[in-house]
Amino acid sequence: MEGLSYILLVAYVRMLCHLTTSRSFLLQSKLAMSDSIALSDPDAKAKLKLGLFSYPVLQSADILLYQYVPGSFAQAQITIRRATHVPVGHDQAQHLEFARENAKNFNTAHGHFFCEPQTIISPANRVMSLRDPRIKMSKSHEDPKSRLLLNDDAGTIQLKIKAALTDSINGLSYDPIERPGVSNLLALMSHMDSDHRSVEQIISEGQYLSMRAFKEEVAATLIKGLTDIRAGYDYYMSASQARYLQEVAAAGNEAARLKAERTMTPVRRMVGIDEL
């Protein structure tokens, strides 16, 4: 990606080091090290790879590439939708901070061009593992029962929720520290509830439920909420739709290329390499 090279020119190593050292879980998972390890540790340094640092830079370039802010090159009459706000999970908030810093650095060095994208955090900003509710749900976890997939069928959802780790305390209460498993199921149910009930409402209405009955209600809510998504997935992944998906991908690729070029043309001019 050509746009990546320009972001590399204004990206500070200081910020990249902060992104990695402030996220011990990233070091632990990517370097297969203890969660107490520091970036300065000799063992950590020996295992460091460029990808650990280049991913935030690539993400930043991908965000900034598809925008144009009228400013120094407004006369170019370029008009496309700007990446002014970006929805991300809680663990990606620092990456958006990094993207904002890169936009600011470029504007300072070459003149105002990029807007500084703002972060939008979803209410469901952190969905936890069904088998270990103190860690985030992940598609790469070795236990398939630890996660829910959008195309899971009703039977699979029921089995996964039934096997979800909870506790032996009577009643329902939301306490992510003392009752992480129950709290995770309450949050999942609230996010997927067709009546848009809050966690507090679900607790109030289900205060006398046994844990088994509560899990059955959670499973029923998830099955209902994912039915249309699963049906759509199955339809578009069917053999009859293979050509359609290829056409959509090709059209999207071309649209992205054109939008990126509308950004890169004035960027090259601002950096001074448009005639090279």
Q: How are the secondary structure elements laid out?
A:
Layout: H1 2-10, H2 13-21, H3 24-31, H4 42-47, H5 50-65, E1 85-88, H6 93-110, E2 118-121, H7 154-162, H8 180-192, H9 199-205, H10 211-236, H11 242-271
Descriptive labels:
276 residues, mainly alpha, 3% strand, single chain
Molecular structure report:
This protein has helices at residues 2-10, 13-21, 24-31, 42-47, 50-65, 93-110, 154-162, 180-192, 199-205, 211-236, 242-271; strands at 85-88, 118-121. With 276 residues, it is mainly α. It has a two-stranded parallel sheet with strand order 1-2. α6 (93-110) links the parallel β1 and β2. The radius of gyration is 23 Å and the shape is globular.
Structural class computed from helices and strand pairing: mainly alpha
Helix content: 40-55%
Biggest pleated sheet: 2 strands, parallel
Q: Could you tell me the mean pLDDT?
A: 82
Number of helix segments? 11
Spans where pLDDT lies below 50 across 5 or more residues:
71-80
The number of distinct β-strands equals 2
Q: What is the radius of gyration computed over CA atoms, rounded to a whole number of angstroms?
A: 23 Å
Name the shape in a single word: globular
User: What is the oligomer described by this structure?
Assistant: single chain
Strand order of the largest sheet: 1-2
Strand percentage: under 5%
SSE succession: HHHHHEHEHHHHH
State the end-to-end CA separation.
17 Å
